[in-house]
């Protein structure tokens, strides 16, 4: 069965919290294989090398698909010499997922700056890199809570761009694409038969009828009317400040937001330890914890594994539905 194929857990930035979270993630209780350099794992980790994702290891032992890095990992201090290998690991995991050898991928955090400095990484994050590896397919980034009720699921239409560029990048084509991809993924991957989507405005009070900005009246509201006429269940444009408290969240399954922080502040505030980043629209399953490399605590063994555990379980669950 598809859902029983292991998930590939990519090592991410080895100077971050990724390598210490990998053995803790065994608590997820789903089959997965760590793809990275075993020399970066914390001392005392019980691990065994496997040749393919399907190979079995003893319970309580981390299965490792070996990818040798040129330099050791010093917690909190990314080495530019390792940047290219971090990128190779992601590409190798995608290949394993696309070939059918793995059920999907779950990515431990990368440090964008370290990859840019060390390997001229031309993408702002995994999301854009994965879309490129998949053949430049349109994707959206969704972050989903796993431990709060009603759930919080958010999709920023614009992702890793400067705030000053948001009004120009936010347009009807991008918003419609985000809504359609989200609607389809909620049906396919989250088993929601009739998804309810809420759309945030860009401006305070969703523009308050043009008094505080005109994007809502000029094109967001007409676009939503058009999609409603097609049968999509959409509310909005809504004032973003009042759409994330519990009674408001009970009225929708996912919130489409204008920009990164409008979307990610509510989810990371409500469920930092259980939030999952999932890329929708890819031909393979990809999830990730919601946090970054956490250089300030890396190597101390105190990083919370809740988010990566939730991400592995979600990837396994999604793979089973495909
Ligand atoms: N999926 C990804 O690859 C991903 C996701 C988010 C951020 N990042 C990258 O990570 C780097 C650092 O980003 P940041 O500092 O904004 O966010 P961060 O999530 O790394 O850290 C923010 C704060 O949360 C704490 N924290 C993070 N993860 C934790 C955990 N598992 N347990 C306990 N505390 C934890 C950190 O110690 C820090 O105080 C950046 O380069 C960013 O782009 C990558
Ligand atoms: N924007 C995400 C966040 O702040 O959590 C994060 O940078 C991860 O993005 P990728 O999955 O594209 O690396």
From TrEMBL:
Keyword set, alphabetical order: Cobalt, Cytoplasm, Magnesium, Metal-binding, NAD, NADP, Oxidoreductase, Pyridoxine biosynthesis, Zinc
Predominant localisation class: cytoplasm
Pfam family, one: PdxA
Binding sites annotated in the UniProt record for substrate: 126-127, 268, 277, 286
GO MF term list: 4-hydroxythreonine-4-phosphate dehydrogenase activity
Catalytic activity reported: 4-(phosphooxy)-L-threonine + NAD(+) = 3-amino-2-oxopropyl phosphate + CO2 + NADH
Keyword Oxidoreductase: yes
Pathway where it operates: Cofactor biosynthesis; pyridoxine 5'-phosphate biosynthesis; pyridoxine 5'-phosphate from D-erythrose 4-phosphate: step 4/5
Residues noted as binding a divalent metal cation in the record, renumbered to the chain: 160, 205, 260
Compartment annotation: Cytoplasm
Entry EC no(s): 1.1.1.262
SUPFAM superfamilies: Isocitrate/Isopropylmalate dehydrogenase-like
Cofactor comment text: Binds 1 divalent metal cation per subunit. Can use ions such as Zn(2+), Mg(2+) or Co(2+).
Cofactor(s) it depends on: Zn(2+); Mg(2+); Co(2+)
Note: The active site is located at the dimer interface.
UniProt family annotation: Belongs to the PdxA family.
Quaternary structure annotation from Swiss-Prot or TrEMBL: Homodimer.
Functional description taken from the UniProt entry: Catalyzes the NAD(P)-dependent oxidation of 4-(phosphooxy)-L-threonine (HTP) into 2-amino-3-oxo-4-(phosphooxy)butyric acid which spontaneously decarboxylates to form 3-amino-2-oxopropyl phosphate (AHAP).
PANTHER family given in the database record: 4-HYDROXYTHREONINE-4-PHOSPHATE DEHYDROGENASE, D-THREONATE 4-PHOSPHATE DEHYDROGENASE
Name of this chain's protein: 4-hydroxythreonine-4-phosphate dehydrogenase
């Amino acid at each position: 069965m598809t859902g029983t194929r292991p998930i590939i857990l990519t090592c991410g930035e080895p100077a971050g919290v990724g390598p210490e979270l990998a053995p803790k993630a065994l608590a997820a209780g789903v089959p997965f294989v760590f793809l990275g350099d075993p020399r970066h794992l914390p001392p005392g980790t019980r691990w065994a090398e496997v040749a393919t994702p399907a190979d079995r290891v003893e319970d309580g032992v981390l299965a490792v698909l070996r990818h040798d890095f040129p330099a050791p990992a010093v917690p909190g201090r990314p080495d530019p010499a390792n940047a290219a290998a971090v990128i190779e690991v992601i590409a190798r995991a995608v290949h394993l997922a696309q070939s059918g050898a793995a059920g999907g991928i779950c990515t431990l955090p990368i440090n964008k700056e370290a990859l840019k400095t060390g390997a001229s990484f031309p993408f702002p994050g995994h999301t854009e890199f994965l879309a490129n590896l998949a053949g430049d397919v349109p994707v959206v980034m969704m972050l989903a809570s796993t431990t709060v009720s009603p759930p919080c699921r958010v999709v920023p239409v614009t992702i890793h761009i400067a705030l000053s560029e948001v009004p120009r990048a936010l347009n009807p084509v991008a918003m419609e694409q985000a809504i359609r991809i989200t609607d389809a993924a909620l049906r396919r991957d989250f088993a929601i038969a009739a998804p309810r989507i809420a759309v945030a405005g860009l401006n305070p009070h969703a523009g308050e009828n043009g008094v505080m900005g005109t994007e809502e009246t000029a094109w967001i509201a007409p676009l939503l009317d058009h999609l409603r006429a097609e049968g999509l269940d959409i509310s909005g444009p809504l004032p973003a400040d009042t759409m994330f408290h519990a009674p408001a969240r009970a009225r929708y399954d996912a919130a489409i937001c204008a920009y990164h922080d409008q979307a990610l502040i509510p989810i990371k505030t409500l469920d930092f330890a259980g939030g999952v980043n999932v890329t929708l629209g890819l031909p393979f399953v990809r999830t990730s914890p919601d946090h970054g490399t956490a250089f300030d605590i890396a190597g101390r063994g105190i990083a919370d594994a809740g988010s990566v555990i939730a991400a592995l379980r979600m990837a396994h669950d999604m793979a089973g539905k495909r």
